[in-house]
């Protein structure tokens, strides 16, 4: 009896004093909530907490039942079912009840049942209830696996216990859902649930209950055990030999950790919230005692703990479900055994050891088993007993093991297999082998960066990258990644690419430059595995340079021949360029599926193609800007003349344009612009053209070309209008002719990252709204105040602004890193307009919750900014304006409760 939680005497006194029982019940519930919360804050054992809550709910329901129902009737009983039936309740968990009747004639109880349920509603208990007879329970259970699962876990709260026993007999395995059928259904249910979460434990905002490795996986083991053994008590499963002590400890401690997180979530959300949202991650990390350190935030340390726990639970769930499958489904199968060698054999498509001492006598077999599965893709998996042996012997992997040439040879050989590389590296990681063989990899297991850019843990991203590399070798991916597919097929040693992929992020979370630190680790790995010097150097260089191509493509003007030449010098040769291009494609796709869009594809393809041309020309033969301009003009002229444009008219227009225009545009774009400008009547106002940038579906964005008399607020007005049109600007190229006309090109995507495509209505709307805005610049488009997406609200940091002049001194470069917010680019345009500054070029990069933008600027006289005080004021204004914008957008964020 816990009188602090519920005092029966005090409760009866309250009932006697009140004219209605509702007030007494509500007071008791408020007091219990307060007591349980205080106990949680005080660090009370979570197992006791959730059972105490269930115990308290028992008392309340029994009192309510005694007031409203016929408690002395022998043909009715009140049962707790589901999680509540197990005696487990979190602050806002479902309270599932079954009002069980002896037969389907319930007329005599209708009134009291209705009054009982109304009372529960009035006192604020959210219950899920059903009213069924034993025969109806049997009928429903036979039809629905979830119903029988709920009924199996039942307790009698009030009434005749014999009723429940009769119901349990009616739904027993000899009546329906025998052990094998029940297992198949629960396994299918689990597979469907896992698929909903992309079969990964590593979601940015995981569901503590339903994601892989969550509480539902533990419950699934319990349900199958209950059906087969008659108990779901984890300790009793140890006594029956189904679990060993170490596995019991993993399940028990993992469940306690997840219970603690779920309890905190319910308190913070004040409702049944099982998603570990960004809204709550930082607060729960604080509640659970995590603190920031030099290399990781407290929230990152907490989430790494979470991911490691659920990964361990997933691993154990795999083992136990496999064990159940062998017990319940395969015992009746005809046994087919195919020997592989003296250590391993295949039993009915699953690999197993030939005797229990294999790993003890031959530790190298801890790696050999994964190589064998890669070499024999017909093998479906590992038998449960062998998985258990792997877990029990992984401690044998020590420094001597890692230095043994037999083991290093086996590991390298895995990367040279035709199939199964990713699948078996993932198995090695899941069974805890990979992190022991490569301790540096073990450090990144479960490590999450607290942002919206990296949606997987570092280890999951790394293995995902290798998976994407493997895809690039498959014919079905030729259409989506045509250039990468062709390059991959001609790589001399693909295994080196996989090794570089394995190590490219290995040093995340250590502090310092992870690319440089990772290159050191990669070199040591290659040397330990006795790779040739050329191979070692390439792998190390790829790790150190793995971000170089994406940052160059997205942050620099790759239409500039000098940028291409400098990048080609960094590549050095075609082989490096090929390897790096393929690695970059896989890295982007493996980081976040939303990152790979048509515009990034075209940028990387352009950078690769131009660099390949520069390498063929020779690094000692720098690009000739004038010759490139002439080549573009000659090719464009061929096009426009065939279209009926006079050569003299085209050349007259081009004389008004500088070199930069022809360097930044292709010959086909120059011809497109030229024809439209010459045919455009001056009196019709701004010329706006829209088309796709490329023909391939996967490598195109939308190009908007604007030709209009120069006006100082042109950039600001244009980006504000595009913001109103819900367009995402990826690139801006601003050209001013000698006759003071602007020829501006914007590369845009729709807000969801897709190109506009062949959508006549959308294109007409864009043209109309842009022409209207540019025709009346005094009516400056208002900056839309859009609602900030929920996830973005939780990433607020001070904008960083760097201002410096270009090496040649003609322009000023402004680099901006800030929280991504709706209307950010429009606000930047307004600020630059207020400072009388013109934008000559812009690179727009959005990475998760942040933007990293680069602006090329000049003053009103088309010169670089030369006044340090002006630059300082500009910098401060941007930081203050964008910082205030981020904070204002966070005002709608629900206040977090600090416990």
Automatic annotation (TrEMBL):
UniProt KW GTP-binding keyword: no
Single biological process term from Gene Ontology: regulation of nitrogen utilization
Activity regulation: Uridylyltransferase (UTase) activity is inhibited by glutamine, while glutamine activates uridylyl-removing (UR) activity.
Catalytic reaction(s) noted: guanosine 3',5'-bis(diphosphate) + H2O = GDP + diphosphate + H(+); [protein-PII]-L-tyrosine + UTP = [protein-PII]-uridylyl-L-tyrosine + diphosphate; [protein-PII]-uridylyl-L-tyrosine + H2O = [protein-PII]-L-tyrosine + UMP + H(+)
Names of the cofactor(s): Mg(2+)
CDD domains reported for this sequence: ACT_ACR-UUR-like_2, ACT_UUR-like_1, HDc, NT_GlnE_GlnD_like
EC number, as in UniProt: 2.7.7.59, 3.1.4.-
Recorded GO MF terms: [protein-PII] uridylyltransferase activity; guanosine-3',5'-bis(diphosphate) 3'-diphosphatase activity; phosphoric diester hydrolase activity
Nucleotidyltransferase among keywords: yes
InterPro entries attached to this UniProt entry: ACT-like_dom_sf, ACT_dom, GlnD_Uridyltrans_N, HD/PDEase_dom, HD_domain, NT_sf, PII_UdlTrfase/GS_AdlTrfase, UTase/UR
Region (Uridylyltransferase) residue spans: 1-339
Ranges where the ACT domain occurs: 703-786, 813-893
Similarity-based family: Belongs to the GlnD family.
NCBIfam families noted in UniProt: PRK00275.1, UTase_glnD
Domain notes from UniProt: Has four distinct domains: an N-terminal nucleotidyltransferase (NT) domain responsible for UTase activity, a central HD domain that encodes UR activity, and two C-terminal ACT domains that seem to have a role in glutamine sensing.
PANTHER family according to UniProt: BIFUNCTIONAL URIDYLYLTRANSFERASE/URIDYLYL-REMOVING ENZYME, BIFUNCTIONAL URIDYLYLTRANSFERASE_URIDYLYL-REMOVING ENZYME
Name assigned to this protein: Bifunctional uridylyltransferase/uridylyl-removing enzyme
Source organism (scientific name): Halopseudomonas pelagia
Gene label: glnD
């Amino acid at each position: 009896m816990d009188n602090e939680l519920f005092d029966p005497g005090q409760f009866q006194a309250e009932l006697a004093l009140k004219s209605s029982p509702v007030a007494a019940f509500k007071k008791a519930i408020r007091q219990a909530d307060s007591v349980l919360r205080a106990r949680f804050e005080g660090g009370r054992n979570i197992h006791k907490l959730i059972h105490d809550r269930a115990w308290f709910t028992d008392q309340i329901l029994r009192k309510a039942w005694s007031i409203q129902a016929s408690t002395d009737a022998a043909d009715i009983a009140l049962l707790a079912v589901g999680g509540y039936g197990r005696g487990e309740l979190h602050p806002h968990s479902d309270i599932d009840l079954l009002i069980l009747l002896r037969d389907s004639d319930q007329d005599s109880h209708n009134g009291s049942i209705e009054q009982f349920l109304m009372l529960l509603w009035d006192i604020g208990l959210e219950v899920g209830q059903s009213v069924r007879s034993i025969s109806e329970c049997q009928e429903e259970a036979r039809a629905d696996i979830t119903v029988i699962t709920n009924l199996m876990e039942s307790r009698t709260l009030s009434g005749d216990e014999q009723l429940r026993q009769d119901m349990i007999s009616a739904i027993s395995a000899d009546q329906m859902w025998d052990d094998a059928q029940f297992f198949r259904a629960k396994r299918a249910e689990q597979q469907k649930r896992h698929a909903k979460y992309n079969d990964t434990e590593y979601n940015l905002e995981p569901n503590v209950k339903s994601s892989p490795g969550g509480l539902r996986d533990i419950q699934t083991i319990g349900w199958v055990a209950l059906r087969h053994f008659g108990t779901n008590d984890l300790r009793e499963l140890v006594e029956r030999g189904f679990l060993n002590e170490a596995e019991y400890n993993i399940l028990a401690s993992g469940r306690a950790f997840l219970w603690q997180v779920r309890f905190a979530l319910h308190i913070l959300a004040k409702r049944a919230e099982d998603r570990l949202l960004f809204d709550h991650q930082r607060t729960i990390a604080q509640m659970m005692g995590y603190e920031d350190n030099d290399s990781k935030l407290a929230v990152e340390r907490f989430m790494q703990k979470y991911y490691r726990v659920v990964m361990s639970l997933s691993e154990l769930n795999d083992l136990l479900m496999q064990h159940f499958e062998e017990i319940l489904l395969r015992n009746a199968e005809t046994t087919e055994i195919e020997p592989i060698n003296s250590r391993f054999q295949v039993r009915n498509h699953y690999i197993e050891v030939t005797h229990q001492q294999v790993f003890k006598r031959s530790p190298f077999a801890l790696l050999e088993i994964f190589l064998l599965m890669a070499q024999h893709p017909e093998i479906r998996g590992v038998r449960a007993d062998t998985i258990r042996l792997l877990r029990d012997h992984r401690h044998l992997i020590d420094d001597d093991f890692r230095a043994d040439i037999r083991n290093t040879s086996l590991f390298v050989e895995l990367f040279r297999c035709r199939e199964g590389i990713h699948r078996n590296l993932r198995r090695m990681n899941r069974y805890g082998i990979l992190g022991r063989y490569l301790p540096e990899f073990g450090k990144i297991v479960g490590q999450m960066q607290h942002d919206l850019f990296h949606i997987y843990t570092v280890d999951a991203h790394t293995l995902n990258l290798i998976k994407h590399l493997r895809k690039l070798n498959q014919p079905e991916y030729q259409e989506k990644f045509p250039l990468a597919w062709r390059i991959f097929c001609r790589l001399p040693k693909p295994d080196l690419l996989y090794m570089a992929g394995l190590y490219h992020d290995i040093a995340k979370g250590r502090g310092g430059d992870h690319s440089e630190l990772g290159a050191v680790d990669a070199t040591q790995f290659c040397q330990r595995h006795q790779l040739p010097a050329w191979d070692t150097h390439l792998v190390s260089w790829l790790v150190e340079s793995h971000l170089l191509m994406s940052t160059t493509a997205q942050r620099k003007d790759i239409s500039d021949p000098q940028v291409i030449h400098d990048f080609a010098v960094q590549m050095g040769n075609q082989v490096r360029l090929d390897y790096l291009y393929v690695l970059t494609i896989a890295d982007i796709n493996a980081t976040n599926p939303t990152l790979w869009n048509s515009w990034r594809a075209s940028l990387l393809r352009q950078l690769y193609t131009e660099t390949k041309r520069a390498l063929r020309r020779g690094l000692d033969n720098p690009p000739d800007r004038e010759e490139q301009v002439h080549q573009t003009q000659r090719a464009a002229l061929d096009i426009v003349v065939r279209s009926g444009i006079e050569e003299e008219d085209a050349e007259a227009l081009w004389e008004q344009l500088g070199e930069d225009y022809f360097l930044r545009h292709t010959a086909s774009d120059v011809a497109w612009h030229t024809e439209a400008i010459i045919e455009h009547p001056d009196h019709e106002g701004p010329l706006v053209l829209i088309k796709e940038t490329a023909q391939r579906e996967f490598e195109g964005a939308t190009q908007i070309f604007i030709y209009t008399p120069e006006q100082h607020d042109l950039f600001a007005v244009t980006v504000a209008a595009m913001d109103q049109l819900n367009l995402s600007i990826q690139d801006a190229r601003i050209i001013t002719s000698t006759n003071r006309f602007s020829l501006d090109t914007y590369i845009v995507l729709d807000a969801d990252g897709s190109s506009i495509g062949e959508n006549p209505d959308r294109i007409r709307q864009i043209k109309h709204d842009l022409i209207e805005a540019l025709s009346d610049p005094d009516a400056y488009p208002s900056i839309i105040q859009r609602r900030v997406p929920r996830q973005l609200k939780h990433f607020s940091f001070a904008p960083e602004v760097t201002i410096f002049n270009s090496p040649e001194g003609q322009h000023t470069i402004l680099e901006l890193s800030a929280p991504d917010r709706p209307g950010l680019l429009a606000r930047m345009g307004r600020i630059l307009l207020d400072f009388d500054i013109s934008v000559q070029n812009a690179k727009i990069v959005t990475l998760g919750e942040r933007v990293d933008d680069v602006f090329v600027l000049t003053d009103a006289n088309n010169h670089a900014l030369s006044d340090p005080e002006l630059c300082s004021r500009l910098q401060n204004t941007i930081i203050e304006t964008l910082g205030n914008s981020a904070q204002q957008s966070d005002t709608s964020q629900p206040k977090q409760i600090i416990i």
